[in-house]
Amino acid sequence: MDTHPLTEPVVDEPRGQGPGEQDPVDLLIAFEEASEAPIRPEYLEGTVIVPPPPDYGHGKARLTLSHWLYSAGVRWAGTGMGFRDGGDGDGGTRTLVIPDFYVLRHPPTEQDEAHYKAHRGWYPMHLLALVGEVTSDHHETDTGPKYRGYAAAEIPVYVLVNREDGRVYVHSEPGEDPRRPGRSRYRTTTSTEFGGTLTLPGPYPPLDTSVLLPAL
């Protein structure tokens, strides 16, 4: 099993919204309204993160993988939607993310749409069956806070296209980190250099990463 050092925590106690604190959804709206340029901020481990504008390689890889999933017959593959993790169900918000690509468990139900309206544009994270990210300049966000956030939300599969080291990672089997009680990690990780083939957990077909080479 491959390991990756950037999945180690960068904060002592990852946290979400505390009692009486400002709703992170309001916080992100304030960031968007204050910015002169269009931005799509996210919220991870108690911190607002503003991803850099995507370059050509990032955008091409994101669309390529979303199209590959859809063309392979994977239902409900997509890109562009935002998702919210409410943590332990105490009403607070732990994570707000906009994955580069994803596969839903099923189309949004009436309850999911009600969540979307109540939280002003964020679907519940339990809709995600697979999530994927393509790294930008701040690749530590995808290999650190997002890795831990997706594991904590028990997203079954996390595909990471790491342009920093030229590899694609498939993380699966989320669960508690035995070394750090109360924190989460993926128990299984496989990887390949760009151009290689990776086996994805069922029901997904093998990922031939050569489809990414024209973009990267």
Tell me the overall shape: globular
Structural class: alpha+beta
Distance between the termini: 25 Å
Task: Please state the oligomeric state of the protein chains shown.
Answer: single chain
Helix content: 10-25%
* H and E order: HEEHEEEEHEEHHEEEEE
Largest sheet: 6 strands, mixed
Estimated radius of gyration = 17 Å
What is the average of the pLDDT values? 88
* Model regions low in confidence, pLDDT < 50 over at least 5 residues: 1-14
Largest beta sheet: strand ordering:
3-6-8-9-10-11
Discrete helix count: 5
Relative strand content: 25-35%
Structure, briefly:
It is built from five helices and 13 strands. The strands form three sheets. Strands 3-6-8-9-10-11 form a six-stranded mixed beta sheet. The protein has a five-stranded mixed beta sheet with strand order 2-1-5-4-7, with helices on both faces. It is of the alpha+beta class.
SSE arrangement:
Layout: H1 24-34, E1 42-44, E2 47-49, H2 56-71, E3 77-78, E4 83-85, E5 95-97, E6 101-104, H3 110-118, E7 123-124, E8 128-134, H4 139-143, H5 145-152, E9 157-162, E10 167-176, E11 184-193, E12 197-198, E13 207-208
Parallel strand pairs: 4-7, 8-9
Antiparallel strand pairs: 1-2, 1-5, 3-6, 4-5, 6-8, 9-10, 10-11, 12-13
